[in-house]
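I would like you to sit down with the pair of lines that follows and say whether tokens and residues agree.
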Amino acid sequence: MTGSDLRESVTAMVRLVAGAEEAALLGQPASARARLGSPQAWTLRATIAHNTEFNAQQVIRLKAAAVRDTPPSFSEIEHTSAEAYQRFSEPSSEEVLTTSRSTTAELLDRLWGLPDADLTDPERNPWLNGRPLWLQVVVRGFWHPGGHLGEYWLTHGPAERAVRLHRSGVALAEAMELPGPALGMARYALACAQARTGRLEDALTELVEALAANPELSLNAARDPDLEPVRVFPG
């Protein structure tokens, strides 16, 4: 896969989730936008604000890679923290949408501005600890936000929308011929959504495919609560 092909594929994956977020927020009735959530059940607005912050952190990393610098470390978010939930709940839906659009655009602009070697050679950026930069963009721009958006639908409904999102991710990753690590992430996300909605046989099949494409997901699969029904499924 050439550098241009890889950028095109990653761009498509990032745009898939960003578009789903935007459509969900624009299509949400005013009554739902005003609904209060909780640290255990985030609102759509807070979910997208959190995803956008993760993308903004990736922008900082891409800027650092462009000048051969080491980016700052970012602390992990405790998703059940009342303080974290409050912070992401403060911006209005309009502010969240505007920031999401601009951050996604800058993320992709930075992606396309880097040399091929910076994206594919982990040794160019030692702070990546062996992970290629393009894959980190997939994690931050597709897998992480897609997981949170799917969780929103699985929690608030309609749950089928989460399955459709992750099924689209798998189809797109296959169509764009993304390398195994990224395809495995897409399949893993679909397996989790299928398990959460009771499609255990489908989830097991998808999980096997995910781990074949990306064996590094095995540790996640062994402890992920979403996959508990699959781990005890007799099939």
